[in-house]
Amino acid sequence: MSLQHNTYFDDAVQSVAFQRSAGRASVGVMDIGQYHFGTDAPERMTVVAGELRVKLPSAEWQQFPAGTSFEVPGSSGFDLEVEVPTAYFCEYLEG
After folding, report:
1. Could you tell me if 49 and 65 are in contact, meaning their C-beta atoms sit under 8 angstroms apart?
2. DSSP letter string over 32-72?
3. Strand, helix or coil for residue 13
4. In 3D, which of 23, 69, 27, 21 has the Cα closest to residue 44?
5. 77 by DSSP, 3-state: which?
6. What angle do CA 95, 82, 4 make, to 5 degrees?
7. Which of 7, 51, 82, 89 is the most buried (most CB within 10 A)?
8. What number is the average pLDDT over the span 50-72?
9. pLDDT of residue 22
10. What value does the mean pLDDT take over residues 37-63?
């Protein structure tokens, strides 16, 4: 298994990407802050611990506590507000 460690926003967001039988995925943590991420492929984000406030394309802000998921279209982006350190699991939903 090949792991790829990525950091964003001055190390406030860190992830480890990996390949699995169902496709590419990553797990990571986010420190308190506000972030914007762009997407190439569609993604499903699951909040593992903590909570995310999310603004998806053409939608209002929504809260996602631990145990909930949301999907982001490919070739788009989304905004996040993180009020407590939060862990996530991201699945890349490539066609």
Report:
1. no
2. SEEEEEEESS-EEEEEEESEEEEE-TTS-EEEEETT-EEEE
3. strand
4. 69
5. strand
6. 50
7. 82
8. 97
9. 82
10. 96
Query: Mean pLDDT over residues 32-57, rounded?
Result: 97
* pLDDT tens profile 76-89: 999 999 999 999 99
Q: 95 pLDDT band (50/70/90 cuts)?
A: low
Dmax (CA) for the chain in angstroms is: 38
Cα torsion angle, 79, 81, 84, 85, sign: positive
Instruction: Report the alpha-carbon distance of residue 31 to residue 49 in Å, rounded.
Output: 12
Buried b / exposed e across 60-79, counting CB within 10 Å, b at 16+?
A: eeeebeeeeebebeeeeebe
Q: Considering the chain, what is the average pLDDT of its residues? A: 95
